[in-house]
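Progress note, sequence design subtask.
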């Protein structure tokens, strides 16, 4: 049983009002070890709140769900209805399958090539928006069941789907897109406007990070001399990883705010790349 945890980010705008929950969309992103959520006010089209937790104590579905309920309860939201709830699975267990080869009955087989999926995980899939591919992924069944019992119309998606769809919408025709977590990162390579590569890599050091990134680029025929890399996730411009990658890549960028949504003044204190996935899922 988890103790009460403190969030490492907790920003609620002055305009946030628990009594307006029925006009809020909520996006919840989770993996074992971490949980975050954000609210979009659909009347003003403003992102009004963001809260993030990270702890080794979040080691089970029960831990995650209790932490979520406690967080919502502290804001007077635990028994409130929302306009919509989206649950973003943020684990590494996902695989892209070309649509012509996809068979729903074989979903488990697609994941078995690369992962040992635990028995208590469900297997599901969703189409990517701008390409003929299906993302097959595995959420923890217990957490999804708890979410469905609390909000019957909850939508489940994988964070990599949001990440890839957003990169495909970018006006960069050829580029590398990187989404960073604490100890792993997603890499997507786009060439001539088409998806060329997607994978996830674990890392322990900045050297690991640079090696995997540069290896993926080399194997896919793109060079740091003339191909931009766009970062999102838990990384800042002033970091050892960026310093090292900058030795090999001329054009390093961070995701920008396309201003499709307004952002509460309170959230301006948080680097946009930190909540980029929530933003994209809610817009």
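Output:
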């Amino acid at each position: 049983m988890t103790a009460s945890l403190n969030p490492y980010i907790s920003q609620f705008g002055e305009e946030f009002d628990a009594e307006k929950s029925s006009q809020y969309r909520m996006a919840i992103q989770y993996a074992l070890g971490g949980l975050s959520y954000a609210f979009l006010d659909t009347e003003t089209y403003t992102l009004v709140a963001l809260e993030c937790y990270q702890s080794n104590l979040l080691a089970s579905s029960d831990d995650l769900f209790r932490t979520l309920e406690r967080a919502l309860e502290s804001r007077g939201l635990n028994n409130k209805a929302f306009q919509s709830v989206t649950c973003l699975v943020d684990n590494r267990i996902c695989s892209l399958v070309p649509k012509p080869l996809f068979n729903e009955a074989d979903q488990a087989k697609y994941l078995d090539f690369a992962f040992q999926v635990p028995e208590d995980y469900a297997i599901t899939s969703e189409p990517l928006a701008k390409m003929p591919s299906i993302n097959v992924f595995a959420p923890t069944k217990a957490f999804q069941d708890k979410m469905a019992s609390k909000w019957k119309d909850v939508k489940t998606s994988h964070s990599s789907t949001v990440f890839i769809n957003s990169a495909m919408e970018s006006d960069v025709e050829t580029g590398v897109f990187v989404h960073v977590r604490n100890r792993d990162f997603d890499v997507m390579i786009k060439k001539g406007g088409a998806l060329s590569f997607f994978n996830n890599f674990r890392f322990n050091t900045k050297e690991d990070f640079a090696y995997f990134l540069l290896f993926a680029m080399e194997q896919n025929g793109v060079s740091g001399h003339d191909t931009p890399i766009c970062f999102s996730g838990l990384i800042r411009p002033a970091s050892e990883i960026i310093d090292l990658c900058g030795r090999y890549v001329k054009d390093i960028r961070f995701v920008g705010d396309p201003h499709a949504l307004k952002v509460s003044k309170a959230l301006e204190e948080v680097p946009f790349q930190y909540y980029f996935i929530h933003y994209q899922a809610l817009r």
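The chain has a mean pLDDT of 95. Work on this subtask will continue into the next period as scheduled.
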